Amino acid sequence: TLSTLVKFKNQNIIAIDGDNLVFCIAEGESEIEIEVGKTTRICGIMPILQRETIVTTNGLRWNLDKTPLEFGTLISSSNELTSNKMILRIFRRSFSQKIQQHQLQHEYDLIVIGGGSGGLSCSKAASDLGARVALIDAVQPTPDGKSWGIGGTCANVGCIPKKLMHHAAIVGRELKHAEKYGWKSSGNSQHNWSTLVEVVNDRIKANNWVYRVQLNEKGIKYYNAFGTIIDRNTVSTQGVDKKKTSNILKAKNIVISTGLRPIYPKIEGAELGITSDDLFSLEKSPGKTLVVGGGYVALECAGLLADLGHDVDLLIRSEPLKNFDKDCVDKVVSNLESHGVNIKWRDEVVKVEKSGENLEKKRVHFKNSDDPIQYDTVIWAMGRKPNISKIGLENVKVSQSAKNGRILADEFDRTSQDGIYAIGDIVFNRNELTPLAIQSGKLLAKRLFDGSKEIVEYEKVATTVFTPLELSTIGLTEHDALRLYGEHDIEIYHSYFTPFEHVISQDSDSKYCYVKLICMRNEPQNILGLHFVGPNAAEIMQGFAVAFRRGITFSDIKSTIAIHPCSAEEFLKLQITKRSGLDPRVAGCCG
Ligand code: FAD
């Protein structure tokens, strides 16, 4: 209760009604001095206020970092009261600003911060279960100024544009062989980068639109804004519109799914390079390109650019594709080289500077060489860091990994702060894969709003590297199987094969196509891992993944009647073990 009004300057009092004082704040700075009791509760309908516009004195403080100014209520923290007088200083902006900065409080069952694969799936599943959902998504522009719409990394700057460009590269390779199949070639198979960027980005925009329609249809409130957690139930939004519209949202549950962003090296001139966030919408053809990194993004970008006709150097400081089967990685890397990618092993970039006539080129200095090299484009693909700079983790008790800053969450996606969950790439020790983020989002929504106990099984997940020859895999690598069971207890079947795509074209790629199956040596020879290097590897492995998750044996594979002729049947034809030392090259095709 408001006890006594001591001073009330420059204001129009509208009414004093018992304990309630109703007033109107004039434009400019105003002061209200009031006497307060220990349990004073001050309610203000102050939709125009920004946090920094309130100053209180005489010892009564609101913890303004933690207590949002909201349309409705400001509650004093009574145990911090050291005086019974307080001055509330308020600065009111002009009427037009008042409209722009209008802060309203909205109540939801679930607030999701981040509208990528994880956030979208969680929001949609929660809404299907009857929850009132707000989804907040915005993109911090790249240093090159690029930004994009809803859908997160996968839809805008990851899987989708990457796969479309990978396919563009395959089309180019097929064109080279077209005449062998009787097609008349126009003789002009030069690639036009701008056309590709245009069609890829049209596709992306179409996807952005579909997401927005879906959110609308499901009644999910979409805020194209940055979300900042203020306390365990409150999120403020700052719109990316010109007016920077802000809102205060409240919910019992908050999900963080803000993903990762590429890392720039800490070297002079790093800003002259770009990342995969810029590549797929790059207006100018990349030209002579240096790709720096040994992960899948680096190898995929290098491969597709080389196949699109660019001169590509790939700098790998240590081991490429660390968690994949070594034999398969060797094939993929040799195949990249055969596609014209020049691999610079065990070196580092130490400096990049502008060069060329119009200073449009980049001169790159390497650690192990005195001669710098000039490139048109430098792409950093050296890993990704958590996208957490704007999400207000400092306001809540959400723990992060000391190793890489990612959020720590348990198998139920719970963070160390009650009511706050994390899903997708932002979570420590989770594989960076869209389908995992999607599944986590869906199952979390079911646990929150449908009483489900189901959790994601993070083991036994198939994945593919979309290099010119794709590498697809599920289960243990040979190295891990040996480490876990020892050489005596495991059996490895393998073979080289010629995919039908290469039979007539005599494509040199066929010498890298390889299939490997790892199983226990003793009956029933449970399968531990499947690995495939060849065309359409992703399509092939998806079906095997279903079976593998159920637990299959080598005799299950051998007794399955093949689909003929196709590359997937190579798994069914396996008979040569690595232990035997026999030549694993397959000859003949039909029996
Ligand atoms: P994201 O999709 O990154 O979404 C996070 C969203 O949150 C973003 O829109 C971000 O801008 C937004 N955000 C961040 N902070 C805030 C904030 N404070 N307020 C509001 N919004 C915020 N995976 C595969 O499975 N297959 C592939 O072939 C594949 N290829 C890839 C290729 C590349 C080049 C890259 C970079 C990634 C690829 N991935 C692939 C990985 C895949 O894209 C990610 O695993 C997936 O997008 C993760 O989803 P997410 O929801 O965790 O995060």
UniProtKB/TrEMBL annotation:
- List residues of the Thiamin pyrophosphokinase thiamin-binding domain: 28-88
Record key words, sorted: ATP-binding, Disulfide bond, FAD, Flavoprotein, Kinase, NADP, Nucleotide-binding, Oxidoreductase, Redox-active center, Transferase
| The organism's place on the tree of life at top rank | Eukaryota
Single GO biological process annotation from the record: cell redox homeostasis
Q: Name one GO cellular component term.
A: cytosol
Identify which cofactors the protein needs according to its UniProt entry: FAD
Q: A Gene Ontology MF term for this entry? A: glutathione-disulfide reductase (NADPH) activity
**Into which family does the record put it?**
Belongs to the class-I pyridine nucleotide-disulfide oxidoreductase family.
| Record protein name field | Thiamin pyrophosphokinase thiamin-binding domain-containing protein
